[in-house]
Amino acid sequence: MFVHRRRGWEIPENRVTPEHIFHQRRALAKTLAAGPILAAAAPLLGAGRAFAASDPSAGLYPVERNPKYTVDRALTPERIATTYNNFYEFGSSKQISPAAQRLETRPWVVEIGGAVEKPMKIDIDALLKKMPLEERVYAHRCVEAWSMVVPWSGFPLKALVDFARPLGSAKYLVMQTFKNPKVAPGQRQIWYPWPYTEGLTMFEAVNELSFMVTGLYGKPVPKQNGAPLRLAVPWKYGFKHVKSIVRFEFTDKRPVSFWEKLQAKEYGFWANVNPEVAHPRWSQASERDIGTGERIPTKPWNGYGDYVAAMYANLKGEVLFR
């Protein structure tokens, strides 16, 4: 007899939100428009809708949801997930959404270089036409002990790796965001090592969970959330999820990432979620769900251990959980 054992991220089919109900969220948002919280956010939401409508990729969304990737928690309301986040290029507070609207996402050229068969530059919209778009519901865990559950749209990072055709010498994939202090006031702060740089091992990059985000809540991803191209690696803390990417470089040298350069004792290369390993200044045992306000226990690997833990089984002497 075959016995199916659910993985940590799986939930029973009867608890999954039906797709037709999920796509009614805009009607629900209109119903709630008279509420004080939504009213306060209305100007920004209007800007977000205008951005989505003007984005050349808007017609690609919504894309079909992949039912394999879901979370045993409610989706975070769109108005919260798009107004509470980190993007240090536009400031150190969570309320960077208005400032991020200065970012021009077209034209947007993505450079692929390093140890590849043929270095190239490709326009984001041309790249999107070559990629298999889908939607995935992922839990996102910030190193600051807050979390959310959101429906990302995009494509597996492995699809981009295959498209880039890296050489056998490539051991790491380095990703960098844009650098333009004229529109990003945070980049005028010279004590930060701009541009924002992050990296994964090739094993991590081709793991099926690694995802390139191009959309959110059935629309192009907003500027404040990393438009037009960002990374989602849900078993890692949020600072690994580099936003607004302009360059991918394949290399045999392990990169030193943005926060690692600033404070390696607090923000390392691996940054895998582990509730038993505290940050030097706070516990990681629990997290605050920004959608519900509830404090909930943090899961090892953010609940994705069945997919990723084996990659790290033979790594000795590495600090995997910060």
Can you walk through the features of this model?
- 20% of the residues lie in helices and 20% in strands.
- It has ten helices and twelve strands.
- The chain has helices at residues 19-22, 25-31, 36-54, 78-81, 97-100, 124-130, 157-164, 202-205, 258-262, 305-308, and strands at 109-114, 120-123, 134-141, 146-156, 172-177, 197-201, 211-216, 219-220, 230-232, 245-251, 286-289, 295-297.
- Strands 3, 4, 7, 8, 9, 11 and 12 form a seven-stranded mixed beta sheet that branches. Strands 2-1-10-5-6 form a five-stranded mixed beta sheet.
- The protein starts with 18 loop residues before the first helix and ends in a 14-residue tail after the last helix.
- Residues 1-6 and 8-44 have low confidence and may be disordered.
